[in-house]
Amino acid sequence: MSQIPTANDIGRFRVLKTLGKGAQGTVYLAKDPHLQRLVAIKTLHLNAAKSKESQLKVLLDEARIVSQMQHPNIAALYDAGEHKGQPYLIFEYVEGMTLAQRLKSKGAIPPVKAVEIALQILEGIAYAHRKQVVHRDLKPANIMMGGNDIPRIMDFGIASNIASEKVASPEFKGTPLYMAPEYISSGTVGPQTDIFSVGMILYEMLIGRNPIQASTVQEVLDKIQHQSFSPPSIIDNDVDERLDNIVLKALSKDPADRFLKAENMIAALEGYLNPVSDISSNNGKEGTQSTMEFLLRRMRHKSDFPAISQAISAINKIAASDNESVSALSNVILKDFALTNKLLKLVNAAYYGQFGGSISTVSRAVVILGFDTVRNIAVTLVLLEHLQNKPQAAQLKDEILATLFGGVIARGLAPKSNVKDVEEAFICSMFHNLGKLLATFYFHEETVEIKKLLQQGGTTERHASVSILGVTYEDLGIGIAKAWNFPEKIISSMREITETKIHKPQTEGEKLRLLSGLASELCQIASNTPVEEKGAQLKALSARYGEGIALSDKQLALAIGDAMREFLRETSILELDTRQSGFMKKISQWSGIADITKSEMQNSSANESEGGSELGDAALQDTVLHSPEPAGPKDIDSAESARKAAQNVLAAGIQDITNTLVDDYALNDLLRMILETMYRGMKFSRVLMCIKEGKHNTMNGRFGFGDDIDQVLKSFKFSLEYSPDVFHVSLNQGLDILIADIDAENIKSRIPDWYRKNVGAHSFILFPVMIKKSAVGLLYADNIHSGALKIQPEELNLLKTLRNQAVLAIKQKL
C-alpha cells in the first residue's frame, strides 16, 4: 500500500521531526518508505541576496565530496535532490547526540575515553586527507556520537581540496573557536588545519569547555593567533604531562610545529594509551638512536619544552641565515618582554658596555655587537629563564649556575687561548654540558640515580648515564642541540675531551672544543675539591692541556677569580637566585671572592617636540594629535607606574638614537631603532615604517615589528594619488592622527578599503615624516588586542620626538 504524501514530505521521504537548525539550513529526521530506514535530511536555506546557482553549488560540492567517503567514522551520504526549489542531501541517520550536546549535558570526558574518541575522529580525518579532502569545520557540533560512543564526522559543506594552499575567497568560513592561526592570518588551508581543530576538540573533551574564553569574535581570533594555550592538566589533574604535550603540539601556532599528518597524531595518542615501558636495551648506534628518540619524546611531553625549543630554534635559524635581517632577529626577541629587558640589561653591563656604551634597543645591540653575540645572549637567556623558575631540586639550581659559570670562565680565557671570538667561546662552554643540565630538569629521578652510582664509586659519569638513561649526557645534549638548529661549531665543541695527550689545535673549531672542555673541568674541580687541593688540581689541569692550551696554573687561578667577579655581576642582572647554593659556596671559597656591589642602569631624559597643525575637516577634527597642555596632578597607582615605565623606555631610546645621529650610521639601522623604541615603550601590537617610492608614486611598508609583521608589510602599500581618507589627510597636511575606532560613524567612510582588507586594526596612529612640507615616509602603529590606543600627553611628546629624529636622520643622508 503506497504512502499518502503530506505537506511535510521531502520528495519520497516522510519527515518525522526537526533534528537541528542553523544559519545555513535545517536537518530533519525522516523515514525512507522504499528502504524502510531512518535518514537525516539536510536542507539549505537559500539566501535571497546571493545567487541560487552559487548556493546550490555549495550543496552539490558537499555531495560530491562526501559521496567519496566510505568510512565508519564519517556519516555516509545516500542521496541528493531538490524539493520545491529547495536542495537537500540524504545522510545516514546516526542515533544519539552530537559531541557538543554530550559535553554540554555531561561535562568533561575522562582522559582515556577522550583519547579513544579523538583517535576515531582522527581515523576519519586521515581517511579524508588520503582522499585529498580537508574538512575545515571540525567541531563538536559536527560530530555525532553513535552507539558504543563511535563518533561520525558530519558536514563537509566547506571542505576543500588538499592541493589548494590557500582559500580563494577572502570570506572567512568555519567556526572561529576551532580555526587554525594560519587560516585566520592568511587563509592557508591544509591537513594541519584539521589537526588544530582536533586538538581543540580533544582539549574541550578533557576540560568540558573550549579553552578560548572571549566575548567577541575578534577577541577569539586574536587569542587563537597570539595567546599561548595553558596545559589541560592545569584545569584537570587527571590529565598528565604526556597528554598535555600531545594536545599542545596539535595546537602549535606554527603548523610546522604540529603533527605533520593525522597518522602522526594517531601514533602519539596510541603511544599515550600504550606507553613504552622500558628504554631500548639494544646496543650500538641503532640502540642509541632509539633511546634518544624515546628520551626526546619524554621531553616533548613536558609542557614547557615546545616553547623553549621553538624560541631557541627560531633564533638560531635567523642568525644562521644570510637572508635574514636585523629586524627578523629583533622581532623574535621582542616577542618576549622579559627576555628583551634582560638582554638589554646584560648588554649594558660592564663586559658588553665597553663595546658601545648605552644600548636601549635590540636593533642597536645587533648592529654594535653583531648577530652571533646577540644570538648567543638570547639563547642563553631563553634556556636559563625557562629552567630557573621551575620548582625543582637544589641540584638543578647548581647545574644552572655551573653552566653559566663555565661560560664566563671560557669568555675570560679566550684571549689567552688565541680564540678569536670570545662570545663563541662563551656559548660553546655554556652548552658543553647541555645534556646533563636538561637531564637534571626533565629526568630528575634518573639523574639522582646516576649520582648515587657515582658516589658508590667504581664507575664514570659516562657509564652511569648509559646504564640509567641509555645514552651519555653528551649524546643527549648533542641530539637536542641539533634539533634546536645550533651551528656545527657549537655542536662539535660539546664533545667531551677524552684524549690522554692533548695536541695543539689546528682549527678554530678545535680551539673552541678544547677551551669548552677546559672551562668545564675547571668549573668542576672548583666546585668539587677542597680548597687545600687547589694548587695541585690546577697544576694537573695545566699539565693535561699543556700543548693544546698553554695556560699555567697561576693563570688558571686568576681566571677563576676574574670569572667569579663577572659571574656575580651577571647573576645579579639575570636575577638568578644564588642563595643556599652549594655550588656558589664552593666556588666562592676557591676564588676567595664572596660579594660584589650591584651596578645600576641610568635612564636618560628626552626633549619635547612640536605637534601638527589644525585640521579643518570636521569629520577628522578629533583625530588630530595636538601638542598637549601641561598635565595636572595624577593619582599614584599601578597605571601611573606603567606610564612612567613607558616614558623611561621612550626617553632612553631617544637618547640612544641621539648618540647614534652624531656617528656614522646606516639609515635603515637607525630607523629600526626608532620603530623598536616605539614598539617596546608603548607596547603597540605593530609598528612599521613606510617609505615613499617616487617611481610608482606609492607609500610602501618597508620594515617593522610586531604580530604578523611580514604579512602586513607585504600588503601595506597605497597610491599617493589623492583620496579623502585618513592616510592622505595625514600625509598631505603633515598631521599626526589617532584613530580610536575605524568603525566610528564619523570616521568609517575615511578608512580605505585596502586597509580594512589587509590590515584591519581597529585603532591606530599615524606620524607623517615630512621634509620641506612633502611626505617622504610614514610611521604607523596600532593596537589589535585591547581596544583603543591610549596615549598620555608626555608619551605623545616623546613619540613626536622619535618621529622628528627620523626626519633628521633622513635629512642627513640626503
UniProtKB/TrEMBL annotation:
Entry keyword set: Kinase, Serine/threonine-protein kinase, Transferase
Domain HDOD: 305-500
Molecular function in Gene Ontology: ATP binding; protein serine/threonine kinase activity
Residue stretches making up the Protein kinase domain: 13-273
Gene3D superfamilies reported in the protein's UniProt record: 3.30.450.40, Hypothetical protein af1432, Phosphorylase Kinase, domain 1, Transferase(Phosphotransferase) domain 1
CDD domains: STKc_PknB_like (cd14014)
A Pfam family assignment: GAF
PROSITE patterns: HDOD, PROTEIN_KINASE_DOM, PROTEIN_KINASE_ST
Keyword Transferase: yes
GO cellular component: cytoplasm
Keyword Iron on entry: no
InterPro entries (alphabetical): Atg1-like (IPR045269), GAF (IPR003018), GAF-like_dom_sf (IPR029016), HDOD (IPR013976), Kinase-like_dom_sf (IPR011009), Prot_kinase_dom (IPR000719), Ser/Thr_kinase_AS (IPR008271)
Protein name: Serine/threonine protein kinase
Source species of the chain: Sulfurirhabdus autotrophica
